[in-house]
């Protein structure tokens, strides 16, 4: 895909090139080198994420990576999905990420917007502003398909340090007049606005043994547990041999019709 000159120059100056899933076979498996270390293990067990391969087959242009030009090392991966939504964006469903994935896969009506699903950067390459470039590339992909509204069930990346605080309160926190959370801050700086919290963006469940394997923790009685990387506690229920994690995210909107981002 041809990028606008400034964005292409940003990639060139970092010695990076863009590749989309439509450009090669096996993109989804190769991308694991970035995606797997980007998430706590339990995040890979959202049942809705089983549609990951289908999504790549249906929308290969919307899945992309940045690769070092010389070494061909994969360093960042972005995923989004076109979908149709009728109605006011303030009424976007409370099931955030899961809803976006399922609605995009259903594809029963022509898409009128697209949703971010993930941006992942290898740990050693974080903190250098690459995520802004990733969002700009995502934007260009949408625009090249005539989609000027990008919605995002944003997962605030520092919320896991404050798992007992409700998301509604957390998104009000600020630092120097900007959102406190670094990932919310990136979206905000690029002109996105918060629509609302989506309280059940992901629902991950499994047996207690599965949760022990996913987290490395020992669960020996029922209760709410703080788990590394989780944005809120995981509920462990011994009577039903069940652990349930419900993750709240934040619906944000980048509207490329309205302003330059
Ligand atoms: C979230 C993520 C994409 C951000 O990418 P990034 O390239 O580090 O982003 P930036 O360099 O633009 O940094 C964004 C902000 O986070 C801060 N930041 C970056 N790395 C940080 C770290 N390890 N700890 C604390 N803050 C950090 C930066 O200082 C910056 O803050 P600023 O607003 O004060 O400048 C990246 O951390 C990542 O891939 N995380 C794992 C997957 C994930 O959570 N994705 C987001 C949900 S889809």
Helix content: 25-40%
DSSP strand content:
25-35%
Largest sheet: 9 strands, mixed
In CATH, the homologous superfamily of the largest domain goes by the name Gcn5-related N-acetyltransferase (GNAT)
For the record, the CATH architecture of the largest domain stands as 3-Layer(aba) Sandwich
Structural class: alpha+beta
CATH topology tier name of the largest domain? Aminopeptidase
- H/E order of the elements? HEHHHEEHEHEHEEHEHEEE
Report Rg: 18 Å
Query: Low-confidence segments, ≥5 residues, pLDDT <50?
Result: none
State the total count of DSSP E strands: 11
Overall pLDDT: 96
Based on Cα principal axes, name the global outline: globular
* Head-to-tail CA distance between termini: 20 Å
DSSP helical segment count? 9
The CATH class of the largest domain is Alpha Beta
Ligands bound to this protein structure? coenzyme A
Number of domains: 2
Topology at a glance:
Layout lengths: L4 H9 L2 E5 L6 H4 L1 H7 L13 H7 L4 E6 L5 E10 L12 H11 L6 E9 L8 H15 L4 E6 L12 H4 L3 E2 L2 E2 L2 H8 L3 E14 L1 H8 L7 E3 L8 E4 L4 E14 L6
Parallel strand pairs: 4-5
Antiparallel strand pairs: 1-2, 2-3, 3-4, 5-11, 6-7, 8-11, 9-10, 10-11
